[in-house]
């Protein structure tokens, strides 16, 4: 039996007790875990120092280093996240659509845990506590596999959480950490369908691709975002500039940031000079097609590969189109099924865009940056699904639940 | 480019037109397709004759031959199935839970097609028309891969459907049939995640296992059913015998038939003599553990492998337990997550069984044979899911849909 298999068996054993925890017990434990993390701040920061020193030594990118770094106030933020999860309504146990059939059978759907959830993530240590909190609140056992760059920080966070659980009289194996960080261990984990019910990868395109190709466990794909904004010929120019600046620059490096503009040729000559100036003031590099470049000298020539690129940086591509059909066709060809927006005053165009664009989130007259579980009012987020099965778009607690039919009879047999 | 890839590309091309079909157009087309099948009865039966002759030549099992066989009245049944699908409400386009956020954004979920659905099935030719009807009603393109034993019948059915669609002015490529029946073609199909959004295997354990191991496309697993009935010590004896006979013998060889009984030791001596007599009258072979055999001489000794077996035949296993906890533990160990029943008059035991048994459908005081989309009131069924993601239990039209968030703003940007 391999190390990964023993984790799978532990998870299955923990599942039985986990399924029986009630709402009050879960919420009390989450609050205790939050307190425990604050108390263990020193140990967690010490572990984080090791990861940070290694990161600097290995020449890690400053953006990644920032994601890796913990301090007292970030640990407080993590604890507050758990407290917020405790305050959310408990979705488990709700009975949906119970109806009486003509033969007298009462048939309804009960919301239940999924069972064991595997989460593979990269260098953000806070994901370990967030993911634990969401899985715990929904009575799921979680197996975490974090990136090796953050392993000491993740180990310290998980040790603190497991210790508090044990003090609370809860089986600490409802949170299991894969301590082997090799690629082989990750691939082996993806194939444990006899022990793990669902796999959620949280990371870059390489990780997601590896999961899609290797996993035998059902996967919820949390994808990349090559998000477009289409500026229709009737758009309000001022609002368009404000929304585009927000979607591109309010936060760079996130999946719901805009990466590409599609602009109607009638509005391009009016919009582009002002827009490019505003973007340049924010230090955004701009590439575009021939028609776009004819409207502004600040636009560099786009390569064909630009249309499919998620820059995650201060860069944007611009394509000018002759009508909404061309815009939708371009977007449906190059988007990654994440978040797409139209800016328009035209009712029919808004309706057509909402109907025909194939993405998790389709916007009219708003920034794509709102694609987020908190902004959608879920009070939490485990990721943003770009697949069509089970959950699509920002995922809150409900995405971590399944249902089972319960059927109440009084002796019915089938005729 | 391989043959399978060309089918994927055709499906993607057909998807665009398919997504635009309205309810009336879809229902009219389904009725026309039903009429077309009746008109093409001779050609379909001629093709079926070839499959039947081959089947007999190859010594096909009589049960399988019966599933393969078509006649005028079965074709009428297939046509009626399509008419019924036409009469069902159209789920596509419904907007769920649209709510206003504090910043004025209106956020709701719109029910949309999944896109392209791959269905791999075995020797029942009628699955081709049923699956087409359900996918068509939900604006999905379907790629069918049927078993080679039924290939002529399936080809004839699909040719008739495609011809009618073309006459109706609808792109016939919304129904694509894989004409290569080799194992290699099937495995290649399972890996076309760039063209196919979801894969639904309908068949035996071997097919399902192959899909789980090979597919890179998200799968909805429609599994086998090792269904149990637990007879609690308070059960009504007469009703228990009636329900068990129904669940075992009303139809053999279906996934919701009971395969195993778990009986409380206090009721076993009263129940088993009468029950085994009734089962033997129905020609059911009975195996059981030591405690069961002590109650009736008609019970043969069960092998350890019996507990995990889906007989799909006139055979049943019996285990006697000392309490409900042991019953639930046994069931959760050996069941396949399909349908499980408790027969009891005890409120607490009913509640515990409903809560703790991990299966798609959990019954109190009724036959497991009701696990079926029609019996649940869906008006149709594409299969019974035994997985926990997306859909669990009998799947009707809703299981073939996804959602997308639509967000209506008036200039909102994220702060």
TrEMBL record, chains A, B:
<dbReference type="InterPro" id="IPR016163">
    <property type="entry name" value="Ald_DH_C"/>
</dbReference>
<dbReference type="InterPro" id="IPR000965">
    <property type="entry name" value="GPR_dom"/>
</dbReference>
<keyword id="KW-0560">Oxidoreductase</keyword>
<dbReference type="InterPro" id="IPR012134">
    <property type="entry name" value="Glu-5-SA_DH"/>
</dbReference>
<dbReference type="GO" id="GO:0005737">
    <property type="term" value="C:cytoplasm"/>
</dbReference>
<keyword id="KW-0028">Amino-acid biosynthesis</keyword>
<comment type="similarity">
    <text>Belongs to the gamma-glutamyl phosphate reductase family.</text>
</comment>
<keyword id="KW-0963">Cytoplasm</keyword>
<dbReference type="GO" id="GO:0055129">
    <property type="term" value="P:L-proline biosynthetic process"/>
</dbReference>
<dbReference type="InterPro" id="IPR016161">
    <property type="entry name" value="Ald_DH/histidinol_DH"/>
</dbReference>
<feature type="domain" description="Aldehyde dehydrogenase">
    <location>
        <begin position="10"/>
        <end position="282"/>
    </location>
</feature>
<dbReference type="Pfam" id="PF00171">
    <property type="entry name" value="Aldedh"/>
</dbReference>
<keyword id="KW-0521">NADP</keyword>
<dbReference type="GO" id="GO:0050661">
    <property type="term" value="F:NADP binding"/>
</dbReference>
<dbReference type="InterPro" id="IPR015590">
    <property type="entry name" value="Aldehyde_DH_dom"/>
</dbReference>
<dbReference type="GO" id="GO:0004350">
    <property type="term" value="F:glutamate-5-semialdehyde dehydrogenase activity"/>
</dbReference>
<feature type="domain" description="Aldehyde dehydrogenase">
    <location>
        <begin position="317"/>
        <end position="377"/>
    </location>
</feature>
<comment type="function">
    <text>Catalyzes the NADPH-dependent reduction of L-glutamate 5-phosphate into L-glutamate 5-semialdehyde and phosphate. The product spontaneously undergoes cyclization to form 1-pyrroline-5-carboxylate.</text>
</comment>
<protein>
    <recommendedName>
        <fullName>Gamma-glutamyl phosphate reductase</fullName>
        <ecNumber>1.2.1.41</ecNumber>
    </recommendedName>
</protein>
<keyword id="KW-0641">Proline biosynthesis</keyword>
<dbReference type="InterPro" id="IPR020593">
    <property type="entry name" value="G-glutamylP_reductase_CS"/>
</dbReference>
<dbReference type="InterPro" id="IPR016162">
    <property type="entry name" value="Ald_DH_N"/>
</dbReference>
<comment type="pathway">
    <text>Amino-acid biosynthesis; L-proline biosynthesis; L-glutamate 5-semialdehyde from L-glutamate: step 2/2.</text>
</comment>
């Amino acid at each position: 039996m391999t190390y990964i298999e023993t984790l799978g068996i532990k998870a299955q054993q923990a599942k039985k007790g986990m399924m029986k925890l009630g709402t009050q017990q879960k919420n009390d434990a989450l609050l205790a875990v939050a307190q425990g993390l604050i108390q263990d701040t020193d140990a967690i920061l010490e572990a984080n120092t090791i990861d940070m020193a290694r990161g600097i030594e290995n020449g890690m990118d400053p953006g990644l280093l920032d994601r890796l770094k913990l301090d007292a106030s970030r640990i407080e933020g993590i604890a507050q996240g758990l407290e917020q999860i405790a305050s959310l309504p408990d979705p488990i146990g709700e009975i949906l659509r119970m109806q009486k059939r003509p033969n007298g059978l009462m048939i309804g759907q009960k919301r239940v845990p999924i069972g064991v959830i595997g989460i593979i993530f990269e260098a953000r240590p806070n994901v370990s506590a967030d993911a634990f909190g969401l899985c715990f609140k929904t009575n799921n056992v979680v197996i975490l596999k974090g990136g090796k760059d953050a392993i000491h920080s993740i180990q310290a966070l998980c040790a603190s959480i497991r210790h508090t659980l044990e003090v609370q009289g809860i089986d600490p194996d409802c949170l299991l950490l894969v301590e082997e960080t090799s690629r082989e261990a990750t691939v082996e984990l993806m194939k444990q369908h006899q022990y793990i019910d669902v796999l959620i990868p949280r990371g870059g395109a390489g990780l997601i691709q590896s999961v899609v190709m290797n996993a035998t466990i059902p996967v919820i794909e949390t994808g990349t975002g090559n998000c477009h904004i289409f500026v229709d010929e009737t758009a309000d120019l001022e609002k368009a500039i404000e929304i585009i600046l927000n979607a591109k620059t309010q936060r760079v490096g996130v999946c719901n940031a805009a990466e590409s503009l599609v602009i109607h040729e009638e509005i391009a000559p009016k919009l582009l000079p002002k827009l490019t100036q505003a973007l340049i003031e924010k230090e955004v590099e701009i590439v575009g097609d021939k028609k776009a470049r004819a409207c502004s000298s600040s636009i560099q020539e786009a390569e064909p590969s630009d249309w499919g690129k998620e820059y995650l940086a201060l860069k944007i591509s611009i394509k000018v189109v002759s009508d909404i059909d061309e815009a939708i066709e371009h977007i449906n060809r190059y988007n990654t099924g994440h978040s797409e927006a139209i800016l328009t005053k035209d009712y029919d165009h808004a309706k057509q865009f909402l109907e025909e664009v194939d993405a998790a989130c389709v916007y009219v007259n708003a920034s794509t940056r709102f694609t987020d579980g908190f902004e959608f009012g879920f009070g939490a987020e485990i990721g943003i699904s770009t697949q069509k099965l089970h959950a699509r778009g920002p995922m809150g607690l409900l995405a971590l639940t399944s249902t089972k039919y319960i059927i109440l009879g009084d002796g019915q047999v089938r005729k």
